[in-house]
Amino acid sequence: MASIEASHRKWYVAAAGAALGVVAVAVGLAWHQSAARTPAPPVVIVGDGVATPKDMAWIPSGVFQMGSDSQLAQPNERPAHAVKVQGFWMDVAHVTNEQFAEFVRQTGYVTTAERKPDWETIRVQLPPGIARPPDDVLVPGAMVFVGTSGPVDLADYSQWWQYVPGASWRHPQGPGSSIEGKEDHPVVQVSYEDALAYAAWAGKRLPSEAEWEYAARGGLEQATYVWGDELMPDGKPLANYWDSRQRTFPVVSPDAGGAAGTLRARTFPPNGYGLHDMTGNAWQWVADWYGADYFTQQARAAGRTPIDNPTGPAEAFDPSEPGVPVHAPKRVIRGGSFLCNESYCLSYRPSARRGSDPYSPMSHVGFRLAKNAPAPVARLEAGDAMAR
């Protein structure tokens, strides 16, 4: 995962009966697994802004298998382990440019990308002993996906990411770019700090990593994607990601179709809880520190007992980036983005997770929020009816 420090390091992924019995058991097991994997569709309840939070979906409490043991799962997603979460509300879509603009208009907030970089937040992401760069290098800006003109070695992401002075949520690709006409797109180029500031203003919070994955799955237990196990049902994409079959990643030359980018929020159908674009489009900040081995630690400590509302490790741990201290601050991002593809990160899956510098805005990272509020009456009535 690229981050602001990358730009500075430049100077700094018995026969018949038995056989029938075996067949019967196998069929029964297959049916049981299928039934467990595709439970009855959950009730979709979206707040009306009067009795319930506007444009937020109710996520009922429950136990689920967090992480994945599938062939596609990366080590940091393993093992799948039981987790319990309490009911909460979640935004049905990413926070949009229009919503973020209203927050800025009302508060005068200046984002991380619009401020001069703080050397102390950069220094902790670098090897010990790196000298402070000159002031003319520490200028406001952010990391921008610039792509390449032809195929490259995918081991070096600095070939398609650059720190661009002047890049911000208003100008996601740098000076000259604009969000005009993209008011309903996810806001990007926002840091973890920016997401917290918006959340405080909105009276909400970032979801925990466990809440995010539970909500993203939409009631489907251990499905590969938020909509099921098939990437393109009926040959149609259900998320905004980079289709490597149509063009090579990260090539963005005119011949390759130009640069990729976000689509409007709610472009694709919602999942079982009524949430749109839980994967693809833009990565989403969540509250937890990132621990590459956190799932392993949790599963080992809990055994088969569901872990109750985990909120992440006490500090970050990521040994995957050479030159970056393993405990450098990193927060979890979830959901993948328009850049994820089969040949590179494959992160448009509900179990995929990454760690990112909380002070490094990027052109493919946004957020959505959660809220603690009473369960909807309709949900309680439905539960009472089922109990009767």
TrEMBL record:
Keywords: Membrane, Transmembrane, Transmembrane helix. InterPro entries: CTDL_fold (IPR016187), Sulfatase_Mod_Factor_Kinase (IPR051043), SUMF_dom (IPR005532), SUMF_sf (IPR042095). Signal peptide: none annotated. This is Formylglycine-generating enzyme family protein. Pfam families: FGE-sulfatase. One of its GO terms (molecular function) is formylglycine-generating oxidase activity. The chain crosses the membrane at residues 12-31. Residues 54-371 form the Sulfatase-modifying factor enzyme-like domain.
